[in-house]
Every structure is written in structure tokens, then in C-alpha cells.
Design goal:
Structural class: alpha/beta
Order of helices and strands: EEHHHEHHEHHEHHEEHHEEEHEHEEEHE
Largest sheet: 8 strands, parallel, barrel
Distance between the termini: 24 Å
Shape: globular
Radius of gyration: 21 Å
Bound molecules: beta-D-fucopyranose
Number of helices: 14
Strand order of the largest sheet: 2-3-4-5-6-8-11-12
Number of strands: 15
């Protein structure tokens, strides 16, 4: 028998997370405009297997069933994103009422089932029309985002309490404009840095709009960042310096201005701030947030590299299991990350884990069921580590598994499955996996069933 159950604080939120382009499909429905992901998916070789989000999980039409499913599993919250091109097809000007109505209906359906909505305003699907005018490297895009945020908030502020301005701005800037592996597929360091700053500015301006608009009592506004604890692969000065460069570029470039109103010195490659950081910008970026959303997937163990802009690369310690997307499975990294955040940032706001989960190659068995013990083990270990961080005093209010349904995993397409619910992409049928029932029970009990067997031991994939 396992040890005693690990109870979470009363009121702890248990949910699942998705993003519009990854699940909705229906790209031509009800006046939706084109997004940079529609464009990028059409670039030969950009997405594994030539997959696109054009149909995805058809969640745009099937959300009533999906909401009923999450409620039947026992989940109390749903984090989803609003597609900007549904609300403003060209990224500016008058709203498309049908787009707003859709999200109103989604929220009403959630509330009807007792599932609390957590709305992300931007999860990477920039209207293509704004990219045509320069995209995130153009300062104007931040002001366009603020208008869009105001429109969505005017439409839903009376029924939605929890708002996330941006999901993982680093991935938008660094993968979209630096590495070019995400939409819009640009590789230019200067544009990347401009994009990063304008995303942060958009967050700051968006915060202002959400605070100023008419809203429900107890409104909570935050932002979601992808964070990893970073450590040098060896004590050598070169590896230590490489780890610091990568940490600054990946994390502190975003965390520091949001929490402390300043960029880490030298993060833009020179000792002075670049001219695209205008006076007053950092005060906006540093506007108070009610919570920090943390997406956790892995640690970053870093060694010096001879080439590349940061002259740093991550390594995976030998023997560490990896998921189908090649990410090392390191549950204790979640605890270490949270404990480190608390130590480094005295005024740290409450935290929600807005994403955590594993990609696997799940299959339907002969009995029609999808058994995914590896995902159950992954979740169990991460939740045990999260429990430790809470016991240590980190103020964590909730956890959202990534993700509810197998979906379009960006450049990886559909082959690698992150869902707790299996989706047959031919007929759109849904089959809750073993992990869905396990996680639903955790949500109902507000407790994890003891430590996972052989805790801290290696995991197999
Ligand atoms: C995060 C994204 C999310 C999903 C997971 C696996 O970076 O926010 O959309 O793709 O990774």
C-alpha cells in the first residue's frame, strides 16, 4: 500500500488547459480572420507531417460535449484562450460579434457545469493582418493588443474573473522571430528582441485595460511564463557563465521587468537599453499582477557551446527519461523552480501552474480503452513535487494539466499526444485515458494518493 494521501490546501483549483489554435479548428467559421499560424502551417516543411490546425479537435463546435466531459471527470476549472482573429479578423477596429458570442457561450456552458473559466487573451495566434504590418516587432501591435483585450473584457468581464494576458511571451518572440520554428517563422535577433519587448508592453497595456474596465468583484489578472530551473552542467566558469546567459535570455528577460520593472543588465547585447524601450514602458510592464502563471515542463542543464548567439546549449543527464517530444522528465524541478522563485522574488504573487504534462504515443487498446500508466506516473510525481513546494511555503493556488484533449502540438503536429483524453483525429471521438480518471479523482479528493511507487526512481517511456 502507498503512503498517506497528499492533501492540497482547501480551495485548490484543479483544471485543464488548452489553446484556441490547437483545439478549435473551424478556421473559416463565423467571420474568423487569418492568423499567423494559418499562414505558417502552409509553409512546406514547417509542421511535422504537413499537419495544420484547420480542423484540430473541432472544439469550436464540440465545446458543449468537451465541457460536459471535463465536468464529468471532476475538473473544476478550464483554462482556454480566445482567438484574436475571431474577435478582430484584421487585428484592429470593430469587433466581430459572432466571435465574441462564441466565447460568451463557452463561458456560459462552463458556468452551467460549475467549471470556472480562466481566459488567456493571447496564445500565439496573431492576426495575419497585423503581421503584415510588422507583427510583434512593431510597437503598434502592443496597442492593438490592448484594444483587443479591452473588447474581450467588455464582453466577458461580468462572467470571467481570471484573466491571463499572454501565454509564454518568450516562445512568441524567441521561437517565432528568433529561431523561426514557430509562426511567423522569422530568424532575426533584432526583430526577436523588439518582439519580446512589445509583447511585454502589450501585457502592461492590457493589464491597464482590464483593471479599468467594468468587471466582477475579485477579478484576478496575471500572465503565464514558461519557466525552468537552470543549472550549469559542470562547475567550470564557462558552463556557469553559459547557464547565466541562457537564464537571462529565457527567463529573466521576462520575469525581471514584470516583477521588478527592469531588464537584466546586458540582456539585449549592450550595456544600455535599446531605443525601442521607451520611457515609461517598464512602469507599465511592472504593473501589479494578482498571480503569476507558471508553465513547467523541464529543467535546463546548461553547458558552454562554441557557436550560437548565447554560446550555450542544454544537455539531458544520461539516464533521464524523456517524453515523446524529447523533454526530460524531472518532477523535482517543479519544486525547485517554485522554491527558487519565492527565494529570488520577495513580492512574488500567488502562483498557478497553468501548464504541466507529458507527450506520449498513446494508442487505443483492443478493448477500446487508452491506458497511459506513464502519464499517470508523470502527473503523480509532479503533483508530489508541487505538494512539497506548497509545504515549503510557496503560495500555489491551482494546477492545470496540459492538456484536456490530444491536439495540434504546433510544429510537432498531431503525432505526439499530450491529452488526458484521447482524440481520434479521423472521427473526432474522445476516449478518456486512464490518466483522465486518475486526475479527476485527484481533483475530487483535493489530494494525490500518496507518493508514487518508487518515488524519485527513473521513469520509463
Ligand atoms: C507550451 C505551450 C502549449 C503546449 C505545451 C506543450 O509551451 O504553451 O501550447 O504546446 O507547451
Amino acid at each position: 500500500m502507498g503512503e498517506a494521501a497528499l492533501s492540497f490546501p482547501p480551495g485548490f483549483v484543479w483544471g485543464s488547459a488548452t489553446a484556441a489554435y490547437q483545439v478549435e479548428g473551424a478556421v473559416d467559421a463565423d467571420g474568423r480572420g487569418r492568423s499567423i499560424w494559418d499562414t505558417f502551417c502552409a509553409v512546406p516543411g514547417a509542421i511535422a507531417n504537413g499537419d495544420t490546425g484547420a480542423v484540430a479537435c473541432d472544439h469550436y463546435h464540440r465545446y458543449p460535449d468537451d465541457v460536459a466531459l471535463m465536468a464529468s471527470l471532476g475538473l473544476g476549472a478550464y483554462r482556454f484562450s480566445v482567438a484574436w482573429p475571431r474577435v478582430q479578423p484584421d487585428g484592429r477596429g470593430a469587433p466581430n460579434q459572432k466571435g465574441l458570442d462564441h466565447y460568451r457561450q463557452v463561458v456560459e456552458k462552463l458556468l452551467e457545469h460549475g467549471v470556472v473559466p480562466y481566459v488567456t487573451l493571447y496564445h500565439w495566434d496573431l492576426p495575419q493582418a497585423l503581421q503584415d504590418r510588422g507583427g510583434w516587432p512593431a510597437r503598434d501591435t502592443a496597442y492593438r493588443f490592448a484594444d483587443y483585450a479591452g473588447i474581450v473584457h467588455d464582453a466577458l468581464g461580468d462572467v470571467v474573473r481570471h484573466w491571463i494576458t499572454l501565454n509564454e511571451p518568450k516562445v512568441s518572440s524567441h521561437a517565432g522571430y528568433g529561431g523561426g520554428i514557430h509562426a511567423p517563422g522569422i530568424r532575426d535577433l533584432d526583430l526577436r528582441d523588439r518582439a519580446a519587448h512589445h509583447l511585454l508592453l502589450a501585457h502592461g497595456l492590457g493589464l491597464q485595460r482590464l483593471r479599468a474596465g467594468r468587471h466582477t468583484a475579485g477579478q484576478q489578472v496575471g500572465i503565464t511564463l514558461d519557466l525552468s530551473p537552470v543549472a550549469p552542467a559542470s562547475p567550470s566558469a564557462d558552463d556557469v557563465a553559459a547557464a547565466e546567459r541562457l537564464d537571462a535570455d529565457s527567463h529573466r528577460m521576462f520575469l525581471d521587468p514584470i516583477l521588478s520593472g527592469a531588464y537584466p543588465p546586458g540582456v539585449f547585447g549592450s550595456s544600455s537599453l535599446p531605443d525601442f524601450v521607451a520611457p515609461g514602458d517598464l512602469d507599465l510592464v511592472n504593473g501589479p499582477i494578482d498571480f503569476l502563471g507558471v508553465n513547467y515542463y523541464r529543467r535546463m542543464l546548461v553547458r558552454a557551446a562554441p557557436t550560437g548567439h548565447l554560446r550555450a546549449e542544454t544537455v539531458i543527464p544520461s539516464g533521464t527519461p524523456v517524453t515523446a517530444v524529447g523533454w526530460p522528465v524531472e518532477p523535482d524541478g517543479l519544486r525547485d523552480l517554485l522554491v527558487g522563485l519565492k527565494a529570488d522574488h520577495p513580492g512574488l504573487p500567488p502562483i498557478y501552474i497553468t501548464e504541466n504534462g507529458a507527450a506520449l504515443y498513446d494508442e487505443v487498446g483492443a478493448d477500446g480503452q487508452v491506458d497511459d500508466p506513464v502519464r499517470v506516473d508523470y502527473l503523480h510525481r509532479h503533483l508530489a513535487a508541487l505538494h512539497e513546494a506548497i509545504a515549503f511555503g510557496v503560495d500555489v493556488r491551482g494546477y492545470f494539466v496540459w492538456t484536456l484533449i490530444d491536439n495540434f502540438e504546433w510544429a510537432e503536429g498531431y503525432a505526439k499526444r499530450f491529452g488526458i483524453v484521447y482524440v481520434d483525429h479521423d472521427d473526432q471521438s474522445r476516449v478518456p485515458k486512464t490518466s483522465a480518471r486518475w486526475y479527476g479523482q485527484v481533483a475530487r479528493d483535493n489530494a494525490v494518493p500518496g507518493r508514487p511507487p518508487g518515488d524519485r526512481g527513473p521513469m520509463q517511456n
